[in-house]
Amino acid sequence: MAKIVIIYHTRTGTTKKMAEIIHMEIKNNNIEADIFPVESVKPKQLLDYDGIIIGSPTYYGTLAGPIKQFIDDSVAFHGKLDGKIGMAFSSSANIAGGNETTIISILQALLIHGMIIQGDFKGDHYGPVAIGKIDKRCEDNCRRMALRFIELLRKLA
Amino acid sequence: MAKIVIIYHTRTGTTKKMAEIIHMEIKNNNIEADIFPVESVKPKQLLDYDGIIIGSPTYYGTLAGPIKQFIDDSVAFHGKLDGKIGMAFSSSANIAGGNETTIISILQALLIHGMIIQGDFKGDHYGPVAIGKIDKRCEDNCRRMALRFIELLRKLA
Amino acid sequence: MAKIVIIYHTRTGTTKKMAEIIHMEIKNNNIEADIFPVESVKPKQLLDYDGIIIGSPTYYGTLAGPIKQFIDDSVAFHGKLDGKIGMAFSSSANIAGGNETTIISILQALLIHGMIIQGDFKGDHYGPVAIGKIDKRCEDNCRRMALRFIELLRKLA
Amino acid sequence: MAKIVIIYHTRTGTTKKMAEIIHMEIKNNNIEADIFPVESVKPKQLLDYDGIIIGSPTYYGTLAGPIKQFIDDSVAFHGKLDGKIGMAFSSSANIAGGNETTIISILQALLIHGMIIQGDFKGDHYGPVAIGKIDKRCEDNCRRMALRFIELLRKLA
Question: How far is CA C133 from the centre of its chain?
């Protein structure tokens, strides 16, 4: 049975809350999913999952240092994540504050692992984004992307 | 039965040759595939295919004008390409001459159409790239990515 | 005396309005500035200016086709724009709809021309962005970036 | 008098060697320059320099974890680097292996600090890149970009 992991870094709690909304939506659809702050997970655990979702606050236009270090360390399993499904999300203080480029920076890492990603023709195209506090727009986008992720996972299972 | 289209822009012929290598590899694996210079195809035709592969020379770090215009015009079918599989490739004059960012610029468009893409843990991670003339490295990468594309297409069919 | 050109593509009028706000702010600071829709300007004219500002709506995550074609055509003057100062701005329908990656796609072209760009530690970091209609946030960012652009132009003159 | 700092992360020594080539070229042109592995420098020290050059190996398509953490920590001096001049370089194992996107990821951070960057119409457009071992092409590009950097620094001093 397919299993998903959600890994996030958080400082103010916004990225964590996004992770929880996505986690809840996945579980409500009867897919097994684990959720970890990046500090509590080892790259090796990535092998246990079919879907990998990574969330990061927007720091200087790319993924946060702890997320990047985790991805750098995952090189020990390079080639083993090939064909898994990936998704990214990001929180940021401002519109045009680097949230899109942060998501792209995570997607690039997933692609280099040989993973499969899907965009969205509606909503937040590259992945869900929070601007400041989480509002309805953000929550809807987190749920929508979670549902699309599950759908892709089921097709590829 | 799954069908693939390869669309390219070319001036010197390099991108065309890459398109032909990819086309040949797909057909050799018994998947139906059409190949068009971007000038000879209408966005509406995209609806007829399960897989869409787009190639562009590297002009100023993003997809060539005619490719971009074609993508802009595809907005008439926005939402209709959702879930199709995509891939990009690029030719460039030099190493570090913008070939990676050109591929990313095409992948961004595919994601915004809701399409599914996959990277490669070996070879040219984001998509095949030619540096100057097509050499064995480039040819191998074109073939490899074509095979991975077919594999993904079959899984999702 | 330093001279600036603002070149934009517009369909709904939003990008044009951003261009006009930037143009006005520059002129109010006693710097000569011309403003053109991309359809009314030739790449050769770029040689007449010290500062080049380019605005594009957000279409599929990168600069609009007509802007890209204009940039592709500017290859006839490759090397001649070296050391000029550049800036980019973008309008988009939605948050996380590709506006940042659109600005980055323009900045990449300016860099490949050897041009000089500056980000902003406040406001819209890569360049001013409109989300939907132009609001006060957008207008302030357009003005702010225009002033920073002038400041850099004066330093480099 | 203008002062430059070069900060790098290295594992195999390639990025370090690029840093040293750039350092040497700057000093040969009678500009004061310091060079540090990222582990030996504190964000606060950035305030002492007019020009900041950052080099990173290409790990999963963006700047290495230690470089990213250093940049994240530099938030304590956000706004204080405004107007400084920046440049980035990267080493990578392969062509199309993520070297361009790694450089862009550093440039994005510099822009968000309000810094000034310049591309190159010749050579490695976004910043010098090594593919595997350092060869003449790479060395020439490091020297060329160092000279361009100095020239910009002198104009802005």
Answer: 18
Q: What is the spatial distance between Cα D85 and Cα D73, in angstroms, rounded to a whole number? A: 19
Taking a contact as any Cβ pair under 8 Å apart, which residues of chain D between 90 and 109 contact chain C?
A: 104, 108
pLDDT of residue A1: 82
User: Which residue matches tokens 């957000």?
Assistant: C58
CA distance C30 to chain B (A): 32
Strand (E) positions, chain C?
Answer: 3-8, 32-37, 51-57, 85-92, 116-118, 129-131
Please list the alpha-helical segments (H only) found in chain A: 14-28, 65-73, 99-112, 136-156
User: Cα dist. C7→C40, C53, C70, C132, D12 in Å?
Assistant: 9, 6, 10, 20, 45
Question: In a mutagenesis test of the B interface, which of C15, C52, C68, C82 is the best target, namely the one with the most B β-carbons within 10 Å?
Answer: C68
Report the chain C residue with the minimal C-alpha distance to residue B69: C65
In chain A, what is the straight-line distance between the N-terminal and C-terminal CA atoms, in Å?
8
**D85's tokens:** 């001049």
Q: What is the mean pLDDT of chain A?
A: 97
ipTM surpassing 0.95: yes
Asked if B9 and B15 count as a contact pair (C-beta separation under 8 A), the reply is yes
Cβ-proximal residues to C107 (8 Å cutoff; 6+ apart), any chain:
C86, C88, C117, C126, C127
| Structure-token match 């279409």, residue found | C59
CB-based contact C113:C107 (threshold 8 Å): no
Q: What contacts 24+ positions apart, CB below 8 Å, involve A131-139? A: A131/A92, A131/A93, A131/A94, A131/A95, A131/A97, A131/A99, A131/C95, A132/A93, A132/A94, A133/A14, A134/A14, A134/A17, A134/A18, A134/A21, A134/A91, A137/C95, A138/A18, A139/A21
> Percent of chain B beyond pLDDT 90?
98
**In the predicted model, what is the mean pLDDT of residues A105-128?**
98
Terminal Cα-to-Cα distance of chain D (whole angstroms):
8
- What are C111's two structure tokens? 């860099």
CB C109 within 8 A of CB C71: yes
* Nearest one of A22, A24, A21, A19 to A8, comparing CA atoms: A19
Distance from C-alpha of D21 to C-alpha of B27, rounded to nearest angstrom: 48
* Across A124-149, average pLDDT: 97
Q: Which residues of D touch B97 (CB under 8 A)?
A: 124-125
Which phi-psi region, left, alpha or beta, contains residue D96 (left: φ > 0; alpha: ψ -120 to 50)? left
Closest chain C residue to D110 measured between Cα atoms?
Answer: C119
Q: What is the pLDDT of residues C63-109, one digit of tens each?
A: 999 999 999 999 999 999 999 999 999 999 999 999 999 999 999 99
Would you say residue C157 has pLDDT above 90?
A: no
Q: What is the pLDDT of residues A6-50, one digit of tens each?
A: 999 999 999 999 999 999 999 999 999 999 999 999 999 999 999
CB count in 10 Å sphere of residue C19: 24
- The answer for residues whose C-beta is within 8 angstroms of residue B144's C-beta and 6 or more apart is B120, B122, B123, B128
Interface membership of A2 toward B (CB under 8 Å)? no
How many residues in chain D?
A: 157
Q: What are phi and psi of D27, to 5 degrees?
A: -65, -35
Q: What is the CATH number of domain A3-156?
A: 3.40.50.360
Contact C45, B94 (CB under 8 A): no
CA distance to B32, B53, C25, C61, D98, per residue, from B42 (Å): 19, 15, 42, 20, 32
pTM, two decimal places: 0.98
